[in-house]
Amino acid sequence: MSAVKKGSQKTARRSASKRRVKDSHVIDYQPESPVIREHEALERRRRGFRNALRLIAAMLIIGVGWVAWHEALEKNEQFMLKAVEVNTAGTLTREQIVAATGLTTATNVLTMNLRDVRARIERLPQVKSAVIRRDYHGKLTLDVVQRIPVAWIECAKHKLMEPLSGKGCLLDAEGAPVPCEVVTKECLAMPRIQFPGLSTAEPGRPVPDFQLHSALRLMEKLQGRDADGHAKLERVEIPNAWSLVAHFSGDAKITFCVDDLDPQLVRFDRFMHEARARKWRVATLNLLPRINTPVTFHEPPDVTGLALVENTPATPAR
Predict the structure, then answer these.
(1) Residue 314 pLDDT
(2) Beta-carbon neighbour count of residue 232 at 10 Å?
(3) Where in the chain is the domain with CATH 3.10.20.310?
(4) Closest by alpha carbon to 128, among 82, 175, 95?
(5) What pLDDT shows up at residue 49?
(6) pTM exceeds 0.85 for this model
(7) Under 8 Å between Cβ of 105 and 80
(8) pLDDT at 318
């Protein structure tokens, strides 16, 4: 009986709590009435009026500021472009560089975009880099570093012909093609690099081919030897992926490997020293083999006093 009584008491409590939940009332703290609605409409009108005043004031301030900027800065003659100073050395003239900027005397130096002006200058294939500076008196200074050509590049595949063909192209020390608009005596005196397998020839961008960079380095090393009495270097030929052929005045052809140029140049200097002392007219010298270097001459050489190894048949082993 006690268990039944306890269960009935719990059930009675739950039913009483349910009745209390059902009998609860919700109080509306924001009741609507005609008076309240009228007050809310009035407040919205006041808020809209204040926002409109703020917007008009902001527009007036912006307009006055723009007019002041336009009249005091943009139209001020003090800040108009008056002079352009170009510091450079190379094939491009000052007029060509200034024309590439696209600037006129109506340009304001304060509002111009220096990054865009620099990008226009660096689009020229003869330009390596550019730095632009401006002052508050209408002067613009351009410090332009040009690509200095060191050799001609010849490749029939890319229609790069001889210097005087009208389709000649120069190379700088980084291996970037540089268009030649005017052929000068200094340009004609530069050696040529003949590379039939040239991969790309985009003006102003260094060529990625390793053979070309090796040829430029060999050319630089050999040109530095001209003052020591060596024959003048005329051209460097790249016939394949592993060799370079240097052509000198006097019809001498020296073959180098594209790798490890320094040890080969040591052997070359040693041989050429002997050739000058004995007045040899060298026709070919092949430095690809590390021993028994092949060499040919235009005429019989003077070998007096040299210890020569005669080609005698080997003694058969017993």
Answers:
(1) 44
(2) 12
(3) 77-146
(4) 175
(5) 79
(6) no
(7) yes
(8) 45
Q: What is the pLDDT of the chain when averaged over all its residues? A: 83
Structure confidence at residue 73 (pLDDT):
54
> Burial code of 277-314, b = ≥16 C-beta within 10 A, e = fewer?
eeebebeebbbeeeeeeeeeeeeebeeeeeeeeeeeee
Written in H, E and C, the secondary structure of the chain is: CHHHHHHHHHHHHHHHHHHHHHCCCCCCCCCCCHHHHHHHHHHHHHHHHHHHHHHHHHHHHHHHHHHHHHHHHHCCHHHECCEEEEECCCCCCHHHHHHHHCCCCCCECCCCCHHHHHHHHHCCCCEEEEEEEECCCCEEEEEEEECCEEEEEEECCCCECCHHHCCCEEEECCCCEEECCCCCHHHHCCCEEECCCCCCCCCCCCCCCHHHHHHHHHHHHHHCCHHHCCCCEEEEECCCCCEEEEEECCCEEEEEECCCHHHHHHHHHHHHHHHHHHCCCEEEEECCCCCCCCEEECCCCCCCCCCCCCCCCCCCCC
Which burial class, exposed, middle or buried, applies to 156 when counting CB atoms under 10 A from its CB (0-12, 13-18, 19+)?
A: exposed
Residues 207 and 155: their CA atoms lie apart, in Å, by 13
Domain at 77-146: CATH architecture: Roll (3.10)
Per CATH, the number for 149-297 is: 3.40.50.11690
Contacts of 74 (CB under 8 A, 6+ apart): 108, 110, 111
Residues of the chain with pLDDT under 50: 1-4, 312, 314-318
Residues 151, 219 contacting (CB under 8 angstroms):
yes
Distance CA 275, CA 268 (A): 10
